[in-house]
Amino acid sequence: MTPIIKATNLSKHYGTKKNPIKALGPINFEINKGEFTLILGKSGSGKSTLLNLLAGLDKATNGDLIIENNDISKFSARKLSKYRASIGIIFQFYNLLPNLNTIENILMGAWAGGSKANKTRARELMKQFGIDHREKSNVKILSGGEKQRVAICRALISDPDILFCDEPTGALDSNNERQVIEILKQISDSGKTIIMVTHSKEFTPLSDKIIYLRDGLIVDQNEFEHKNQPTVPTTSNINYSMPLNNNAV
User: Fold this and answer.
1) What percent of the chain shows pLDDT beyond 90?
2) Which end of the chain is more exposed for a tag (fewer CB within 10 A), N or C?
3) How far apart, in whole angstroms, are the C-alpha atoms of residue 160 and residue 88?
4) pLDDT, tens digit (0-9, with 9 covering 90-100), for 132-166
5) Using CA atoms, how far apart are residues 109 and 119, in angstroms rounded to an integer?
């Protein structure tokens, strides 16, 4: 299987050439299309640095980072901007615009990528994720679980093949945390590639691959073969292709 992501001797240093501060690497790994990959490690392990490189939010100091047959480590600022518009990014603290309502925040994902606003798709996503009744609500009044669903819809508005998730459940309570992870798992099962940074081992049973980081280096990698197998039990019927229970979150 041809990997959708391949890192070779990838590293990131800060500081000066004379006094570099190593944040990551060198590391080597591959991620295949449709895999749900966890990047696992404690604070300071380099996992956020790695996610920033993968999402084009930062550039590597050395090494190659091939994503969908393009070495983004060699991209110009303009090409990196275009690349970021082709992927989906989900943040821990949602990064919603407080002066906009729900559907406007979702459509921001399309506008940022240079696509035309598609309210039909936005409404389809809101219905699938059980927040269609919040279309015109200001995001400031939404619950944490609802805000993260808005952020997921925004990441999916342009139908990207890859989703990068930075601790997407870190600001949620345990019930909402479980619901969001189940949503991401079913999105992965639909064929999309998901890379999620986390410090929690609770979600390892849901993943296809785990990359363990410590002090900026990969200390272990595990792969599993359990696509479409039962995952953790939930209290509601979450399905990426079906409307969600509006009362679930």
Assistant:
1) 49
2) N
3) 6
4) 999 999 999 999 889 988 999 999 988 899 999 98
5) 12
162-166/88-90 β-pairing: parallel
> Cβ-count burial of 53 within 10 angstroms (0-12 exposed, 13-18 middle, 19+ buried)?
buried
Measured CA to CA, the distance from residue 142 to residue 151 in angstroms comes to 12
Q: Taking the domains of the chain in order of start, what are their residue ranges? A: 32-58+76-223
Cα first-last separation, the chain: 37
Q: Which CATH superfamily is domain 32-58+76-223 in?
A: P-loop containing nucleotide triphosphate hydrolases (3.40.50.300)
Residue 175 and residue 248 in contact, taking contact as beta carbons nearer than 8 Å: no
Which pTM does this prediction carry? Answer: 0.82
